[in-house]
Amino acid sequence: MMTGQHGSQPIQHQFNPYSDNGGTLLGIAGEDFAILASDTRQSVDYSINTRLSHKIKAISPSLTAEFKAQNPKMIGTKNSILFGTNGFSADGDALTRQFEENWKWYVHDQNKSAMSMQSAARNVQHLLYGKRFFPYYVHTIICGLDEEGKGCLYSFDPVGSYEREQCRVGGAGASLIMPFLDNQVNFKNQYIPGTNSTERRKVDYLSLDECLKLVKDAFTSVTERHITVGDGLEIFIIDKNGVRCEYHDLKKD
């Protein structure tokens, strides 16, 4: 009688409902603006599903005809919330839709024109924590302006823990870009020249142009080192004038 080899294990069939679709999400909060950017590649392993996947949505009050006429390039008002997810694309879409529905109900029930960033962060926390036993497999970042008109960014883990930060990166390129932002945005390990590394550089806000240059350089660099990042770069910018979006090409290979 034939017998199996010593040490062989029975085949186990496991169901894995999750998939990592790659990509990178980056947010920076400035003095009077906020930026949320992501690449547009969606992939699985070594296959590219699409080269134009939108990972960020501007959730905004309805735009009036007057606003559109005065701001033809704006896609949202200053009360908008930039909502970005990265990881499992299907979960990201589901979470975005759920938050947008909650946002609409909040505005209707409270008779307000928009939701504050603090309320939005707490709402996202409830959505994520409510799914903690079967969590959304995403890294979430929301950006906007706070009550004082300052740039505001909250980042979340998959089960709802969140924190207000100056900058944050999520996704495939996080380990490559975050140390760069820690140095350039948070001014970590930066010292005033001529002090023999004894006097730290004062932490200050970067200008919008400086932040945009950092974002473009960061994504251009990470596409050279990570195969799941590339194709296109969408940069959403929110300030006192509203929300606008820029698109830039990245490597296609």
UniProtKB/TrEMBL annotation:
Superkingdom per UniProt: Eukaryota
GO CC terms of this entry: cytoplasm; nucleus; proteasome core complex
A GO BP annotation: proteasomal ubiquitin-independent protein catabolic process
Compartment(s): Nucleus
Coarse class of the protein's main subcellular location: nucleus
Keywords, in A-Z order: Cytoplasm, Nucleus, Proteasome
Record SUPFAM superfamilies: N-terminal nucleophile aminohydrolases (Ntn hydrolases) (SSF56235)
InterPro entries with a match to the protein in the record: Ntn_hydrolases_N (IPR029055), Proteasome_sua/b (IPR001353), Proteasome_suB-type (IPR023333)
Entry protein name: YBL041Wp-like protein
